[in-house]
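WARN no homologs supplied; continuing
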Amino acid sequence: MNYLTYLSVFDKLTKSQQDALTSAAFVRKFRKSEILHNGSQDCTGLILVLSGQIRAFTISDDGREITMYRLFERDICLFSAACIMNSIQFDITITAEKDAEVLVIPSEVYKSVMEVSAPLANYTNEVMASRFSDVMWLIDQVMWKSFDKRLAGFLLNEANIEGTNTLKITHETIGNHLGSPREVVTRMLKYFVNERLISLSRGTIEIIDKSGLEKITD
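OK structure emitted
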């Protein structure tokens, strides 16, 4: 199977352009927590997620992490190939949140086709604009939303992703996603426990009042 057909613009490319991308692309598998891409100097290439779950995050000068976005099956990451975009550089790290299989299109090959293909160039701009929207949404959350709203929203989103109200996740991991110290996460989780919204056990958070968390996010 040619996974490049997952790109909505693939059938708009010429046969030679399709062949160039197809011959260069390769599949890689990553175990949970493995790094796919690390920093602006690492121009890995365009990543297309075939299975699993990917996390893109940035690290502050004091070592704190914050999740910029997450990728699932058929999602595309262009920041791992930011070198193809003039004047755009991001110190972004990409890791596998779960065991993952991805298709990698080398940056130089993708760029060579993009430079002569208006459909691919337009598609690239659209994907990049979508990712910038994700980043702007994150900035809005961090700057203007109180932490209880952000944490409640994160727990609800995590339950939706995992398909269960019982979440196997540590306080430190939540802090890494939200860019907050573990101690702050722990205090707010204990508040949620007192409000009978969740229950806590070692490495596990169980949502017991979903509507209550939804009210906080509203």
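The first strand starts at residue 26 and ends at 30.
OK
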